[in-house]
Amino acid sequence: MDDKPRPTVPITPHPTHGIAGRLLADRHSLPLSIALHLLPGALIVAVYLLIAEPFVVAIGYPVFLGWAIALCLVLGPLMAGLYWLGRKRNGRFSLRGVLHYTDKPLPRGKLVAMAIAMFLWMMAVSTALIPLDSFVFDHFFTWLPFAEAGGSATTYIEGNGRSVMLTTLAICLPLTGISLPLIEEFYFRGFLMPRIAHLGKGAPVLSTVLFSLYHFWAPWTFVSKLIFFFPGPWFVWKKKDIRLSIGMHVGATSISMAGGIIALAFNLV
């Protein structure tokens, strides 16, 4: 019997045409990239206003749950769309060739050190900039149809009683704390940003700007997001490793929500 290892046969990409071919191209035009960045945000707001908000108001839950539902109803199909593109490219459901910056070039020790530093940056700076978010909201965005959410993070869950608030955060932790930010990283950093890499240093800058604009449900946080989120796209582009922004983004959202649950459970707030 021949025990010699056999060489791995590389997957031959299937030829793609039409919309799939355009989306899987190595480069996206600037108008296409802008549209692909911003359209999901517009859909999230529409789904919230038409479906999610009436539902959570009817059952007496905070609007935060409504935004979580809207995000799921848009980002879930968006992730399915990435797998559809993988099916078109590879002949099977795979993200190979759809996502980039996934070859794990960074050694584990360096990856962990950088991801922790970026996570701490995001946590500290986003918290420090909350007064800026509130100022921008109070002076420019109180007219929005979802302005009852307010300019700070806590107003999204207030007004429905402590037990309801705690239940809301517990439901949302695996969603807005973990899986939805992960989908955002796959889509914005793994799928879209590599296809504007021909812009050089402008690629992570544009990615940060458009990702901040994509949050149409909280436009008052645009400036603060530009500041605290920029290291994610920048280092993913520079080091070609998407795990950096995943560690920063998912780490910050999950820890923040877990901290909120603990604070409510032990009457610390």
Please tell me about this protein's structure:
By secondary structure, this protein is an all-alpha fold. It has one domain. Helix content is 67%, strand content 0%. The chain has ten helices and no strands. Helix 2 packs parallel to helix 7. The longest helix is centred in the middle third of the chain and has 31 residues. The chain is globular.
Helix-strand sequence: HHHHHHHHHH
Number of domains: 1
Q: Write down the overall geometry.
A: globular
What's the total count of β strands? 0
Distance between the termini: 68 Å
- Mean pLDDT comes to 91
Residues in helix, %: 55-70%
Could you describe the largest sheet, including whether it forms a barrel?
A: none
Radius of gyration: 20 Å
How many alpha or pi helices? 10
Weakly predicted, low-confidence segments? 1-9
Q: Give the helix/strand class.
A: mainly alpha
